[in-house]
Specification:
The complex is a heterodimer. Chain A is α/β, with parallel strands linked by helices. Chain A contains 6 helices and 7 strands; from the N terminus they run ααβββαβαβαββα. Chain B is mostly helical. In chain B, 59% of the residues lie in helices and 0% in strands. In chain B, helix 2 crosses helix 3. Chain B is elongated. The relative contact order of chain B is 0.06. The chains are: A alpha/beta, B mainly alpha. At the A-B interface, helix 5 of A face helix 3 and helix 4 of B.
Chain lengths: 180, 161
């Protein structure tokens, strides 16, 4: 019994090493993600002009009653290009409407970017000075929010949306929310 | 005299070009001081080991602008912090509040220190007891006395001359 005491430091070391091993092998998105305080809170209200038409506005109030994705993107954002094919595919299936928040961009650049790579969005809101982004707690583009029928944020994905994140988390959640 | 003017010109010339670093337009130095003081207490979300005051990231500049605007509206420091915490969580604060999720962070070191101190005292007390309990037999006592009395004793054996 007394002898076992000498194993205490070893056990402690192994436990720590185990924790570090698990933490280091977390998928990248998860490792860097900060928990958002906005989950299960009403999406911040905004009224912005649409990217393609400065005379038309868009805001969460218009989308009450449906489950939708808000994808924060910008033409200067490299990772947005990475997730772009995934969003294009999603919009083709029509599983859930994707609305864009064009964050801190030039209108012309945003329009050109969509013309060049394709436009997966029903429409994009034009957040030129990034204030709406701040209201949504955006700190790294791209970010994607799942918003339910009542306008409540249910999930936030930080970083590029991958096919795995879409199939594993976002789409099941959308399906669940559409039932209610 | 000529060279004096030349030197003065060279010395003073740089003062004419003070463009240098892009300084934000400061209309109200008192407000700006408050903004920077509070920003030093807030974490930049992009470069997480820098404060909002230190960071050159674009988001940090935007958040400083937000802090400045809120202060202009007459919000207190606490209200400004609440505004940011509502959006980014407690992570923006360099001094997290004491609550259930941060309890380990606040009290963990204290718990570790107390545990260590208790362990130290217990083990010292045990050792003292072991020493006190280890009474010598008469034989050992005699031998010890002999050793202390000069060491040239047959029992000591190997003492050098």
């Amino acid at each position: 019994m007394l002898r076992l005491r000498f194993l205490v430091p070893l056990v402690g070391f192994l436990a720590l090493a185990g924790i570090f091993l698990v933490a280091l092998n977390q998928p990248e998105g998860k490792r860097e993600a900060l928990p958002s305080p906005l989950i299960n809170k009403a999406a911040p209200d905004f009224r912005l002009t649409q990217l393609h038409d400065p005379n038309q506005q868009i805001g969460p109030a218009d989308l009450r009653g449906k489950v939708w994705l808000l994808n924060v993107w910008a033409s200067w954002c490299v990772s947005c290009r990475q997730e772009h094919p995934v969003l294009m595919e999603l919009s083709r299936t029509g599983a859930v409407p994707i609305y864009g928040l064009n964050y801190k961009d030039k209108r012309e650049d945003g329009v050109n970017w969509l013309a060049q790579f394709g436009n997966p969005y029903v429409t994009s809101a034009f957040d030129n000075d990034g204030r709406v982004g701040i209201d949504f707690g955006v700190y790294g583009v791209p970010e994607t929010f799942v918003i339910d029928r009542q306008g409540v944020i249910r999930y936030k994905h930080i970083g590029p949306v991958t096919a795995e994140a879409l199939q594993g988390k976002i789409l099941p959640m959308v399906k669940e929310l559409e039932k209610s | 005299m000529k060279s004096f003017f030349l030197i003065m010109m060279l010395v003073l010339a740089p003062l004419a070009v003070t463009a240098g670093e892009a300084q934000p337009m400061v209309e109200d130095p008192v407000l700006e001081k408050r903004v920077m003081a509070l920003s030093a207490e807030l974490r930049c979300l992009v470069c997480q080991n820098q404060s909002l005051a230190d960071s050159h990231a674009e988001l940090a500049a935007d958040l400083r602008r937000e802090v400045r605007d809120l202060m202009k509206e007459g919000k207190s420091d606490a209200e400004v912090v609440d505004y940011l915490v509502a959006r980014y969580g407690d992570f923006v604060r360099y001094r997290p509040p004491v609550k259930s999720t941060t309890a380990l962070l606040w009290f963990g070191p204290l718990i570790l220190a107390v545990t260590g101190a208790v362990a130290l005292f217990v083990s010292l007390a045990r050792r003292r007891k072991r020493i006190a309990d280890a009474a010598l037999t008469d034989e050992q006592r005699k031998r010890a006395a002999a050793l202390l009395n000069g060491g040239v004793n047959e029992e000591a054996g190997e003492t050098k001359a």
